[in-house]
Amino acid sequence: MTLLTKTAFRSAPGGLRCFDLLRNIFAAVLVLGVISGPAAADYKLEPGDQIRVSLTGLEGLSFDAIIDAHGNVNLKWLGHFEAKGLLADELENLVRLDAAGKIVKQYNQNGEIYIIQLDGDEIEVARNGYRPIIIGGDVARTGQIDFRPAITAREAVALAGGVRSMLLADDVTVDPIQLMRWQTTYGQAALQHAQAMVQVWRTTSELRQNLDMAPPTLEQVSVSNTVLEELIAEQLRIRTVNQENEAGEREYFEDAEDQAQQRIEILQEQKTELAKALVSDEEEEARVVSMIERGLTAGSRLADTRRTTVLSATRLLEVEEDLAATNLVLTRLKRDGEFYEQERSLRLLQQRRDAHLALRDASLQMDTIAKYLAGASSEIGTESLISDIDYSVTVFRVVDGQLQELRVDKLTQLLPGDSVEISVVQVTQQTQLTE
């Protein structure tokens, strides 16, 4: 983008160099922002979506635009563009290519005119609003609901005030404050449900020693993808610490058992050699006794021979005692290793059991709050609750220009522009909920 005042317009070369430098700086900042910014999943643009067009450094030229029924968008002085079916980044590229070289007039506070020559890179196009969800049928408030990523059919029903039908009471309304409380409670229960499910996954993978076991998916929980990824990452860190500690313990037992086994082998060799020496000493002692009896040698020699025999027997006894003690140490090490594995399994089984209990409690709480949201009505001093209500969800969605009718479950994530039809299929009883 080149900006020229009247004076700068007359002395274009120097002014151009200066503003080329500014343009390069703006371009570098823009590129860095694109590279370092978070990459968020987007939906293709369709009629009814709103976008915002802005120019780097020229906030006064920013404006919003809505894609019309034909899929086109009027970007004022930038022209008309066909936006249907494009991502916001793709539309931005088209606008930048078309805008390169265009001249725009701009006035400052002093009334001086600026001539702006666009190069396209300074233009940013971003989604500024999604097509709303249209909800109808057996809900308290039919009409539009603002779309947000990852919104489910159950949440849409809650935002529409819960279930309302001729099958229910005549006047089914929702206290907004109580509705907010229930929505908050439901969100907390959904988080606890996801935490428990991820803990079950982690403990099961450790018990089975299967590090490739797949973690829970978005279809199994009622939290956003970001929250689920954080929960999984936390459990992965716990599993990594456990694995490192367990590897250290197992290495200790293996090393200790190896050392004990090596000492046993050495003592076995010593025992064999000492046993042979003792036999030899006893044979020598018997030979000396025979020679003394025949008068072939002095009697004093027998004392020396017996001393040698006793020494060999004593050393053999010591080695046998040492060997027995080392065998006992090895037995205890193996027993301690087995006991450690048993304790590890019991600890993980207890953790998984606790996680299963938390999962069950959170599921029950979510189901209960969902019924409150589906069938609550405001009365004096009480909130009456229509319990055991069930309803079906039908989504009408345009795909490739064709309207499709889809039967989905309550945890299905909706898309921008979906039309949702709610139908009550069962009402069995009415109870009272008092604070």
Query: Which structural class matches the secondary elements?
Result: alpha+beta
Biggest sheet details: 5 strands, mixed
Number of domains: 3
Shape: elongated
Distance between the termini: 64 Å
Strand order of the largest sheet: 10-9-15-13-14
Number of strands: 16
Poorly predicted regions? 4-41, 169-173, 377-388, 427-435
Order of helices and strands: EHHEEEEHEEEEEHHHHEEEEEE
Mean pLDDT: 79
- C-alpha Rg (nearest Å): 41 Å
- Helix segment count? 7
Q: Give the helix level as a range of percent.
A: 40-55%
Strand content: 15-25%
Could you explain how this protein is built, in words?
- A hairpin with a 5-residue loop joins strand 4 and strand 5 (80-82).
- The two termini are 64 Å apart.
- The protein contains seven helices and 16 strands.
- With 435 residues, it is of the alpha+beta class.
- It has helices at residues 6-10, 12-36, 88-99, 153-159, 176-207, 225-293, 300-375, and strands at 2-4, 50-55, 58-66, 72-74, 80-82, 103-107, 113-117, 123-129, 133-137, 143-145, 376-378, 383-387, 390-399, 402-408, 419-426, 429-433.
- Helix 5 runs parallel beside helix 6 (225-293), helix 5 runs antiparallel to helix 7 and helix 6 (225-293) runs antiparallel to helix 7 (300-375).
- It folds into three domains: 2-129, no CATH class; 130-168 and 389-435, Outer membrane lipoprotein wza domain like (Outer membrane lipoprotein wza fold like, Roll); 175-376.
- The chain has a five-stranded mixed beta sheet with strand order 10-9-15-13-14, covered by helices on one side.
- Helices cover 52% and strands 20% of the residues.
